[in-house]
Amino acid sequence: MITLEALQIKIIKDIGELNSKRTDILQKILSKYYTYFDNVEDTLIFYETDEEADQKNQEQQEFTEGLIITSNDINFLLSMKEPKIQVRDLEAILNEIFETLLLEPNDLRIVSEIILTKEVEGEALATSLRLLPENLKVDDVQGVGMRLLINNDKYRGELTFEPLIREKDNEFYINFKLGIKNEVELNALTDEIIQIQEEAKQRAQQVLLN
């Protein structure tokens, strides 16, 4: 079973200067989506936290999902576990940002990062050893991770995976970083993200067959 754990979508766009007036307006319109806000050196951070984890650790909040805006890009961080913001909400949020800042909703460059886990039969460490080339002889190898570079007509990126040695011993950790080569229109963003998620699951299935 492959599980989508988290998703990061970076929209590369010339946002312009985030002065105090623009910051105040963005804080006002985005407060209905996110509970918390910080401004760190002209980087605007809107976010949610894990309240239960926060109560256990009073000194450090556990960031669960959020939106980070700089003068050059907009980053969405989505948790797949009881998320407040869904993939389908991103177009509406971006549309409000673009309308507020008088930006054109086109010519968007998209870079994504997807975190997945996959359960395998038996121990993940032992399963990973099947990926070790026969002509590579290294003593005392307990497990194998791998980094694959992906390049086709639509995407360029990398897929890394390794056995998870914490918590469950039958899971792989998978990180899929992918950039869309062509520019994307805002009204096509949801479809593109869904395609990226499916691409990540398909790649994970290809390299980790039982």
Structure description:
Helix content is 25%, strand content 35%. The chain has 210 residues and is an alpha+beta fold. A 9-stranded antiparallel beta sheet has the order 2-3-4-5-1-6-9-8-7. A hairpin with a 2-residue loop joins strand 2 (36-40) and strand 3 (43-49). Helix 1 runs antiparallel to helix 3 (90-101). It is elongated.
Question: Could you provide a short overview of the structure?
Answer:
It is built from 5 helices and 9 strands. The chain is of the alpha+beta class. Strands 2-3-4-5-1-6-9-8-7 form a 9-stranded antiparallel sheet.
Describe how the helices and strands are arranged.
Elements: E1 2-12, H1 20-30, E2 36-40, E3 43-49, H2 51-56, E4 63-69, E5 73-79, H3 90-101, E6 109-119, H4 124-128, E7 146-151, E8 155-163, E9 171-180, H5 189-207
Antiparallel strand pairs: 1-5, 1-6, 2-3, 3-4, 4-5, 6-9, 7-8, 8-9
N→C terminal distance:
11 Å
Strand segment count: 9
What structural class is derived from the secondary structure elements? Answer: alpha+beta
- Percent of sequence in beta strands: 25-35%
Query: Low-confidence stretches at least 5 residues in length (pLDDT < 50)?
Result: none
Main beta sheet:
9 strands, antiparallel
Helix content: 25-40%
**Measured on Cα atoms, how large is the radius of gyration?**
20 Å
| Total of helices | 5
Which strand order does the major sheet show? 2-3-4-5-1-6-9-8-7
Main attributes?
210 residues, alpha+beta, 5 helices
